[in-house]
Write a structure and sequence with these properties.
Elements lengths: L1 H22 L2 E10 L2 E10 L2 E6 L4 E6 L4 E6 L4 E6 L15 E12 L2 E12 L2 E10 L4 E7 L4 E10 L13 E2 L14
Parallel strand pairs: 6-12
Antiparallel strand pairs: 1-2, 1-11, 2-3, 3-4, 4-5, 5-6, 7-8, 8-9, 9-10, 10-11
Length: about 190
C-alpha cells in the first residue's frame, strides 16, 4: 500500500513538472494595440505567471504577479504604485484559454510574424456581456501572438518576439510607495 502511494506521488510530481514546463513562457515582445482609430505601441515581458505591460511614451506601466495574486499599476516617474487583487477579469489575454471562455472554434492555421499559429474564434462572457475574438496562438512559443475583437473595435498583436525576460522587470521599483489615494486604471478594463 505504501509503495503504491509513493509511486502515485512520484507520478503526480512528474506530471506536474511536465504540465508546468509545458505552460512556462518567457518572452519579450513589441506590443501593438488598436482601439478604433487609436494605435498604441508598447512592450510586453512574460515569465511564467508574471507579466509586465508598458505603453510607449508614458512612465505608467502594469505588472501582473500571478504568483502573488496581484496586479500593480506603477508610476515610475512618481515612484508610486496602486495594487489590486488579480481577478480573472483583470488578467491580460496572454494564454491560450481566455478568462470567461465559453466556446472555441478552430479556423485553420497561419504564420504570424514568422510563427506557426492555430487560428480560433473564441467567445468569452464578462458579466452579462458576450464578446467574440479571433485568436492566433503560436504553437512554437505557446503564446497568443494576435487577438482581434470580431467587432473590429480592438486588436493586439505581438511582434519581434524574443525569448527571455529578466526577473527584475516584475518587481516594484526600489523605494516605490503604495498610493492609497487613487484607484488604478486597471480596474476599469481588464482582459486586453
Amino acid at each position: 500500500m505504501r509503495k503504491g502511494a509513493i509511486l502515485c506521488g512520484c507520478a503526480l510530481l512528474v506530471l506536474f513538472a511536465f504540465v508546468s514546463s509545458a505552460f512556462a513562457v518567457e518572452i519579450t515582445a513589441d506590443m501593438i494595440t488598436k482601439e478604433g482609430k487609436i494605435v498604441r505601441n508598447g512592450k510586453i515581458y512574460v515569465k511564467d505567471t508574471k507579466i509586465r505591460m508598458e505603453q510607449g511614451g508614458t512612465p505608467i506601466y502594469s505588472v501582473v504577479r500571478g504568483d502573488k495574486g496581484v496586479i500593480w499599476q506603477i508610476n515610475a516617474y512618481e515612484k508610486t504604485y496602486v495594487e489590486a487583487k488579480l481577478t480573472p477579469e483583470l488578467k491580460p489575454f496572454v494564454e491560450e484559454k481566455l478568462p470567461g471562455e465559453v466556446s472555441r472554434k478552430p479556423l485553420g492555421t497561419e504564420a504570424i510574424d514568422g510563427h506557426p499559429t492555430k487560428k480560433y474564434e473564441v467567445t468569452i462572457k464578462r458579466g452579462k456581456a458576450t464578446e467574440t475574438y479571433h485568436q492566433w496562438f503560436a504553437t512554437d512559443i505557446k503564446f497568443p501572438v494576435k487577438m482581434v475583437n470580431v467587432n473590429g473595435k480592438w486588436s493586439r498583436e505581438y511582434k519581434n518576439i524574443k525569448k527571455g525576460a529578466a526577473d527584475s522587470l516584475f518587481d516594484l521599483p526600489k523605494g516605490a510607495e503604495k498610493d492609497l489615494t487613487s484607484a488604478p486604471d486597471v480596474l476599469g478594463g481588464g482582459g486586453h
